Request: fold
Amino acid sequence: RGSAAVAEAAEAPAGHRHRGIMGAMILGLCIFNVVDFDSRSASSGIRGRRSLLSSLYLSGPSTLLPWAQHHLVDVTDKPDPEAETALFWHIPKSGGTTAKRLYQCMGQTLAHRVGGDPRYGHDKEDELIVFEPHGDKDWKVVNVDTSIVPGILRAKELGLVQSHKTDLIFTMEPQFAGEQLYDEDNKGRFLAVFRHPVDRALSMFYYLQTASWERSYRPEWANMTVMEWSTLPNFEANYVVRKLIGKKFSETVDEMDLIIAKELVRQRFIVGLMTEMNESIRRFNVVLGIDEENERNHKCMEEFGVLEEKKEEVAPEEEANDGERKLEEVSEEVRTHATDKKNSNSHPKFEPGTPEYEAVAGRNNLDMLLFHYVETLFEEQKEIIDSYLQEENVEEHEEDVSEESTDEVTEVIEESVGETQGDEVLQEFHDESIPEPALKNGDTLTLDGEPLGFTK
Reply:
């Protein structure tokens, strides 16, 4: 089809040729986009996480935005928390508040809304300051509000990322923050928890009716039905795609924007799902270098309900009767646990096929497609995240083997020539003989060209 489109464009009148070629290019990108990217490598281990990006799609024309290409690390790159600064995109009503409170509890230094709150007196400082907003709790924040555009610009001016004063940045403006805060020498890694677009939109609709403490409080929605709200001209349609691309709500988003958003998420985001919060947090912890066995971290995860619990044995008939109900209860508990009451809200649920559901889904058609794509990525990225740990285990094993080899050499030399002389032999061997890295198991060790009578 792509070839036919190009041929037709070449034969078209001059006035239509440009549009024909552009249409063929977009068609080509769409073809690449729908190709199944699950071309797994036959090999196991570390090579496994490379398979996600080895498909035909990424071998074709790239639609990765320049700021994402140059300012963010690739999903397949092994995390280096000391060198990179992570950013959590807080999508409203998608578990971001829970994640923020969890990492706050763990003692991570965060950059988010509280840091720029005038009540704490550091919002006008001309330098970055790490402070504890609540004296009775070990919660640390930097004095910038990275959740909004003005705060991001202030954080850029003060060199937030370059200072390495924060462990994790929270923002609601991923495109702007990624473009402004990072550079090629100070790259970032993006994390986000995604939620089904209809569930998220409805939760936001009911929440903002009463959330007077929020900047986007909408009391006028209180007397509206979902059907009335979904037809508003200023309805917040395709929020996720729009934010990823950096388009204003007055601008139109289309299929090309969806393609760009998909590639951005696939190559530059560690994705989480609100319905899989435990596993999502586990993956984020791996990327952030957080030790879950640490007493404080473990306690926080337990408190926030994001630890995998051992499944209790139940009778088959009881499991059959109550399994679905229990799953729903646990799922809801994970979504709402440890958030303050004012941030959670009960509201009616609408099933697929109902007028309300279809109306909201229709206004979020691109977000719906992106979310289903993210669900697939979530499954694929498990292999990638687990490979990070495999690399760490390999490195630790190599260090252990190296130490064991050194100890064995020392022991043999000391047994052969005595402890005192052995120290001299080892030092001379280290300084003048074959460098340690050049030796392989089975090589004969020598000193001044003479064999020592044993092998590495």
The chain has 18 helices and nine strands. The two ends are 62 Å apart (CA to CA).
